[in-house]
Amino acid sequence: MGFLGIPLSVATSLIASVAIGLAVDDTIHYLVRYNTEFKKDLDKDRAMRDTLMSVGRPIIFTSLTISLGFAVLTFSHFQPTALFGFLMVVTMLSALIGDTILLPA
Fold first, then answer.
1. CB pairs under 8 A, 24+ apart, for 81-85?
2. What values do phi and psi take at 25, rounded to 5?
3. Segment 9-34, tens digit of pLDDT
4. What CA–CA distances, in Å, run from 94 to 6, 15, 27, 42?
5. Is residue 7 classed exposed, middle or buried when 0-12, 13-18 and 19+ CB atoms within 10 A define those classes?
6. Which of 91, 84, 90, 96 is nearest to 15 (CA)?
7. Which one of 26, 29, 40, 95 has the lowest number of neighbouring Cβ atoms within 10 Å?
8. How many CB atoms are located within 10 Å of the residue 17 CB?
9. 66-103 confidence digits (pLDDT tens)
10. How many CB atoms lie within 10 A of CB 43?
11. How many angstroms separate the CA atoms of 65 and 78, rounded?
12. For 39-56, how does the pLDDT look when each residue is reduced to its tens digit (9 = 90+)?
């Protein structure tokens, strides 16, 4: 936000809490499913593969759908609404990368 010149305010703080809540939800789904798969036979590679195949697709679809929905807000002439949309898109795409690439690693 500092690099882009976006000020830290009450509105951006509220945006952060909503966006992080959505991102944490996907992470919890992944971790719970991985734990369930891992307990079957203690094979971490199979558990990771099966987890990505089962919850990876819904995580990708929901994150992209939410991002596209919030991207519409960036066309608003009301600056706080446009900023809200932009920050939500950036956060959701960052969380998607984290959930699909960093978390399995």
1. 83/6, 83/11, 83/12, 83/15, 84/11, 84/15
2. -60, -45
3. 777 777 778 778 877 888 898 999 99
4. 18, 15, 12, 30
5. exposed
6. 84
7. 40
8. 8
9. 899 989 999 999 888 888 888 889 888 988 898 888 88
10. 12
11. 23
12. 999 999 999 999 989 998
Torsion of CA 19, 25, 30, 32, to 10 degrees: 150
Nearby residues of 91 by Cβ (< 8 Å), 6 or more positions away:
16, 19, 20, 22, 23
- Contact yes or no for 84/99 (Cβ under 8 A): no
| End-to-end Cα separation, the chain, in angstroms | 27
Amino acid at 49: R
What is the amino acid identity at position 52? L
Listed residue (14, 26, 11) closest to 96, CA to CA: 26
pTM above 0.85, yes or no: no
